[in-house]
Amino acid sequence: KYVPIQKYFKLNNNLFKNGVYISKHSYTTLSKISLNTDNINYVKFYENAFDMKKDILNENKGKSGIYMLTNKITKKIYIGQSTDLSKRFKNYLNFSYINSKPHLKINRALINYGYSKFSVTILEYCDKLDLLIREQFYFDKLNPQYNKLVGSSLRSKYSPETKARINKSLKEVSLKETSALFGSLQTEAIKPQIRLKKLKESKPLFGQTQSEISKEFIKPQASGRKQFEDTKLKLSVISGNPVNIYEKFSSKGFKLIGSFVSARRAGKFLGISGSTVIKYRNSGEIFKDRYKFSSK
Description:
Elements: E1 10-11, E2 14-17, E3 20-22, E4 44-46, H1 53-59, E5 65-71, E6 77-82, H2 85-92, H3 95-99, H4 105-113, E7 118-125, H5 131-142, H6 152-155, H7 160-173, H8 191-202, H9 210-222, H10 229-239, E8 243-249, E9 253-260, H11 263-270, H12 274-283, E10 291-294
Antiparallel strand pairs: 1-2, 2-3, 4-7, 5-6, 5-7, 8-9, 8-10
């Protein structure tokens, strides 16, 4: 039985202090539990959300990406996204903040079980405009129990009209594991046919010229209205040139660390030009003996 962390007293060598459940047991960065990450690569893993708070905040400062919170007792997970992961975790690790939003399942779980019973996984760093698409990818793969809707952490900030636009956008550009942009498990012989079919089914503008596409998306700006972020996202997916970035790890070879809708955005992530990304992607050479680029 777990006692709410807002209570202050000693129990079985565990200490409740300053509104936070503190366990005297230490944890390593090597997981001994199942993270349900079959066929999923992750960038960083923190075994104990409380003990490793400093590392979590410092190592993710200013980075946008997809994260997962795992209850080590129940094995239930939460999938989320943020344009600044450090700021998001700073909120999660602030008891006053999560206590002010008890309507969220993940907040209630953090309160009931305590931070030390949760691990933090950085699934992927990616461009801000790619967040919704990549979050949907991990939703489809991992099926989180603490949240059921992509972008759920953002929806409370939006008007009903904007929420409707986000829902519409997600339906149109949602990328499943067999998507043309993020690869499939099919044989090489049928991949081209699958890509063509997926493009025709999921992209209403597929087959139109660039000028026709531009006209449709320029209309809102021409009338003085601000272009919505989800519209920008759709345009990037339709007209972009997808690039995956792999980083070299001595023990595991290359691991996927990010997927981007264009070479320019991939280059921005590494602080280099888009033309450099294209050059190394086309040649197959390794950039600075560390990064490899691919469109598949």
